[in-house]
Amino acid sequence: VQLVESGGGLVEAGGSLTLSCAASGFTFEDYTMTWVRQPPGKGLEWVSTIHLNRPYYADSVKGRFTASRDNANSTLLLQMNFLKFEDTGVYYCVPHPKWTPWDPSKHRPLGQGTQVTVSS
User: Fold this and answer.
1) Do residues 11 and 17 touch, judged by C-beta distance below 8 A?
2) Which of 16, 78, 89, 107 has the most CB atoms around its CB within 10 Å?
């Protein structure tokens, strides 16, 4: 299993970024995909899950972030608009079995993540 997150960077508050996750080594379409992030000095935090092609969002990002997936290319995207300082962190994509919610004790990030830094 290989997951490569990219697209992070330094952006001013109010700006936008689009994150990508390239997946390989497993049957991408057979898994629910979740974005999580780790703010500085804190634990993993759920951001968004795409289950059966329907996205779900944490309240903190609802209305600002849009998640999508391209099963043909085994890619997960996260469009982030109106970024806030508190969106700062390392973002990871995590696969987990369908019909199971993301469980931080079981579904750990496998990639290196991509750093998002929002300046206030």
Assistant:
1) yes
2) 78
